[in-house]
Amino acid sequence: MAIAGECVTVEVSLANPLKIPVVLTDMALIWNFFPGLFSDDKNQDDTPKAVTNEQLNTAKNTVARALIETGVIQEVILEPLETKKVHLNLVPLQTGELHITGVGYSLGSRSPNQLTTEQRPSFASSITVHGKQNLEVQGPRLNTTKEEKCSKMYGPDRRLDLQVVPEMPLLEVEFHGFPQTLACGEVQQTTIQVRNTGCDPLHRLTVAATQWDFFSFGHCDLPPDSSSPYQVIPDQTDPLEPERVQQPRGYSPVAEVPIPGSSLESGASVTVPMWIRGPTSTDTHHIDFMFYYESVSKNPPLSYRVLRHRVTLKTCNSVSVRAVAQPQVDKQNTKTSESLTVTMEVENMNKTQDSTITEVSVLQVSCASQQWILQHLSTQRNVDIKVSSQESVFLCFKATRCQDCLKESGEGSIKFSNVTFDQHQISSSTPPCSDFHFKSLQQSHTDRQNIQQIDPQTSPQELKNNNQSSLSLIVFWKGYQVDETGCSCAIVGQHHIHMNSFGVPVTSPPVPKIRMELSPVVFIRDSNSAPNQITNEASKSQLVRYCLVHSPQMEHDFHKSRLCFVSVKLVLHNCSLEDVECEVTTRPEVTRVDVSSVSDLSATDKPKSQTFTWSGLVLTRVRIPIGQTRTVPATACFCSAGVYNLCNFQVSAALHEGATVDRMFTVQQQTSPSIITIYEAP
Predict the structure, then answer these.
(1) Deepest of 84, 525, 615, 668, by most Cβ within 10 A of its Cβ?
(2) Kind of pairing, strands 22-35 and 96-108?
């Protein structure tokens, strides 16, 4: 099928079997056209007569040119034994049936534009011969009946037989300012120019992409000279007052392109702003766009049309965010937690020798939840938090339950609370921030439903509590990037953390799960002499699971006693099928060679500024049988009030085989942060 007024292109492969160059001039397609289809005249009883451009009659060629515009290639030069592909096109101007039958050309041995009189070889001649090559395409082989299976029979090929239908809208899209490289989570504003080059107006213009959370259309009132894609809240706005946004029912992978009037007339063009966000994984991404649109006219020959486009984008490292929420137990009401302690670790993933992004600043941390509001705890407003390459910063926040959450629980509104460190507060409830957040949230729900299933024994109360504990964090960051010319420019981005349960750390970008490789099956006589099956590093780092048991909060009067001691128990569990020798050290810089013959060493670590120290325990070794649990007591020493993470020690393990111990200790996977809050006694 072809559209009247639109170009039809045919690719033809040309081969020169001679050992002399061949010049083809005035090359064009030869066709037969039967006009009169899709005509409103119902009294046409006669079969329409065929019109062709093969005739050399001037009058007939004039009629043919009025029906179809045929493209002509002035000259094609084929070197000896050369094969070349050419594209021939034509534009039908009227409805009917179009049959492309062949290719017409003029054959010569030299090009008038290529050789001069002095360069002309002896065999060159100015004589040209008109030629024609029929296009006969072999159809698909038939294999239905017994006769067709026994003999080679082919069906007709209709690719060159086209029905020309009335005019339709034709869409053209141009991307302006589209980058080739983005940092993970970086947000940039680009524009797309939508143009209707067809004869009819179009409407219902939508777009979809393979990564549907990659782009967003929004209405954001930004200054023309603004270098940031985010909208800023006025300074007089109270930062503790949350912004309320109606929760969308669900984001569709198909987005509507916001064009004025919801339709685009013939020959009109519209420029639409579009925000893009870099994928969270470092790789070369191929993102396919598909634009869908329909004609405004009634009963069009085609119900819809599509336009496809592919972009190639390369992403580089930016930041990694890891957060966990712990409930603060209320002495009066132990069932319901009215506040949470949210700990976050922001790490700059750029390597020291990589000068692409020099440093990253944390601008703001926003919380999107139906019941929780985020506040400062270990941080302050208007404090510049910078993270250099391969460095990380540890932040603590306090999330309190909204007082009017019970009254507005049925309204389905999302509250955005902002904890800002910059002089300007970013509006996290407006596009494109909110659009990327809701798309990431829905993608997180989809991924979780694919890998998890609800336990049928789970009570409705547990499901309700899990829903109430859900909150999302939006981390806004700013980096300074150095391009190839040595110029520095500022880039901004956002990362999303979606927490649905207490005490479970969440990482953005998510940590890929290491696939456990199964060892080959070995047949042995004695099961006791089975060789050690744990060989890879991923399995060796999961021999022991551990956690800390301590009070979540404590009050101490530092005026009476300058040091506050808290008893901590380290619980170790053997998860392997062999006895394990476990080593716990609070000072990883202590080498195992110096203490190889010592089972327990006690000392007092030197205190560090703005942190705590372990008193008594430096290094100890514990043997844990199969499936058993052991406890290691320790004492933490604090010199000031604050929020502390007690997981600053190292646990290593090795398999214990009889009387010998494998000296190759492997550091075990770190557990989630264990937070304790020290208050100043009144």
Answers:
(1) 668
(2) antiparallel
Identity of the amino acid at 173 = V
Residue 655 CB coordination number (10 Å):
19
Task: Look at the alpha carbons of 373, 377, 383, 384 in this order and tell me if their dihedral is positive or negative.
Answer: negative
As a whole number, the mean pLDDT across the chain is 79
Residue type, 171: L
Place of tokens 């080959």: 520
Question: Could you give the CA distance from residue 82 to residue 19 in angstroms, rounded to a whole number?
Answer: 9
- Cα–Cα distance list, 161 to 55, 410, 639 (Å): 20, 61, 88
CA atoms of 527 and 518, how far apart (whole Å): 18
Q: Could you report the per-residue pLDDT of 107-116, keeping only the tens digit for each?
A: 875 555 554 4
- Which three-class secondary structure state does DSSP give residue 248? coil
Q: Which residues of 26-43 are buried (b: 16+ CB within 10 A; e: fewer)?
A: ebbbbbebebeeeeeeee
State the Cα torsion 9-308-305-248 to the nearest 10°: -170
| Per-residue pLDDT tens over the stretch 489-514 | 889 999 999 988 887 888 888 766 55
Cβ 141 vs Cβ 153: under 8 Å: yes
Q: How many CB atoms lie within 10 A of CB 526?
A: 6
Left, alpha or beta for 178 (phi > 0: left; psi -120 to 50: alpha)?
A: beta
Q: Quote the CA–CA distance of 528 and 525 in Å, as a whole number.
A: 9
Q: Which of these, 291, 285, 221, 213, lies nearest to 253 by C-alpha position?
A: 213
CA dist., res. 482 & res. 24, Å (int): 52
Q: How many CA atoms lie within 13 A of 201 on its CB side?
A: 12
For strand 650-657 and strand 580-585, is the pairing parallel, antiparallel, or unpaired?
antiparallel
Burial of 410 (0-12, 13-18, 19+ CB in 10 A): exposed
* pTM listed for this prediction: 0.72
- The 10s digit of each residue's pLDDT in 384-396 is 888 888 888 888 8
Three-point CA angle 246, 368, 289, nearest 5°: 75
Are 162 and 1 within 8 A, CB to CB? yes
* Banded pLDDT at 488 (limits 50, 70, 90): confident
Please tell me the number of Cα atoms within 13 Å of 518 on its side-chain side: 3
Contacts of 457 (CB under 8 A, 6+ apart): none
**Rounded distance between C-alpha atoms, residue 325 and residue 436, angstroms:** 22
Task: Note whether 39 and 15 are within 8 A (CB).
Answer: no
pLDDT digits (tens, 9 = 90+) for 558-592: 888 888 999 999 999 998 888 888 888 887 654 44
The pair of structure tokens assigned to 88 is: 């021939």
Q: Which residues are 273's β-sheet partners?
A: 191
What value, to the nearest 5°, has the Cα angle with vertex 672 and ends 666 and 675?
125
